[in-house]
């Protein structure tokens, strides 16, 4: 039990701080079998997940976790992080329905427990890009700028937030994703030129500092691209 989060994942550090050394000695020298060892950590030094995974790798059978790391003081190892780590170590889903992670996050928020927007795997913007070059990569091949297939594993397709850094690539990706365009229906840079110009005017002319909301962009698509809107949204799709 690393009550204050002092443990580190480095084997060369002296006991009691070295988790590899601690688990190894308990397992190999003292003779405590792996199935009798479990790790309980805290996040006082931002090491809680790495320390839990290290305990696993060095012979600890179980790691205590909590939903999204909620716990005493700075929290405990996040369950969803341990699940993804376990899958990565095993190279297989092992029968785990990872979309339940997203459902659990929605439940936690529904009962008034906030989740930071940038929180890994579940935050509102965990897979949202604001940089145009990243959006360009997503548009060409999602694997370039998405951590894994977040749509399949978490039910969360990658998103783009429109800012002064988004560029034309970002606007193209937003329009295609928002309208659900695929194949030959997808728009290119030429078709969204007016919308991209409107976006840049918000920052260069009007001095805007915040990201542009989906609602604002939706309104501009209706006004600047009425035929596209009518075809793909005007029929109630």
Looking at this protein, list some descriptive labels:
237 residues, mainly alpha, two-stranded parallel ribbon, elongated
In short:
Helix content is 43%, strand content 3%. The protein is built from ten helices and four strands; from the N terminus they run αβαβααβααβαααα.
Which helices and strands appear, and what pairs or packs with what?
Blueprint: H1 19-29, E1 38-39, H2 48-57, E2 62-63, H3 79-90, H4 99-110, E3 128-129, H5 132-140, H6 150-154, E4 159-160, H7 167-179, H8 193-204, H9 214-224, H10 226-232
Parallel strand pairs: 1-2, 3-4
Helix pairs in contact: 5-7, 7-8, 9-10
Keywords: Transferase
InterPro entries: Aldolase_TIM, PYR_CT
GO molecular function: transferase activity
């Amino acid at each position: 039990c690393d009550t204050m989060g002092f443990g580190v994942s480095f084997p060369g550090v002296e006991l009691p701080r070295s988790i590899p050394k601690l688990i190894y000695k308990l397992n190999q020298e003292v003779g405590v079998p792996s199935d009798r060892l479990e790790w309980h950590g805290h996040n006082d030094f931002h090491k809680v997940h790495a320390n839990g995974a290290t305990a696993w790798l060095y012979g600890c059978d179980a790691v205590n976790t909590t939903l999204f790391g909620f716990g005493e003081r700075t929290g405990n190892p996040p369950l969803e992080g341990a699940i993804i780590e376990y899958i990565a170590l095993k190279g297989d889903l092992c029968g785990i329905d990872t979309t339940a992670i997203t459902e659990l996050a929605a439940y936690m928020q529904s009962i008034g427990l906030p989740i930071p927007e940038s929180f890994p795997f579940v935050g509102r913007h965990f897979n949202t890009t604001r940089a145009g070059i990243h959006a360009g990569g997503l548009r060409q091949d999602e694997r370039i700028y998405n951590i894994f297939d977040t749509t399949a594993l978490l039910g969360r397709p990658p998103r783009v937030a429109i800012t002064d850094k988004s560029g034309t690539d970002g606007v193209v990706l937003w329009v295609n994703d928002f309208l659900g365009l695929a194949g030959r229906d997808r728009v290119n840079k030429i078709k969204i030129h007016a919308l991209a110009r409107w976006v840049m005017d918000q920052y260069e002319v009007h001095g805007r500092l915040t990201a542009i909301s989906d609602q604002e962009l939706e309104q501009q698509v209706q006004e600047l691209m009425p035929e596209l809107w009518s075809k793909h949204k005007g029929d109630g799709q």
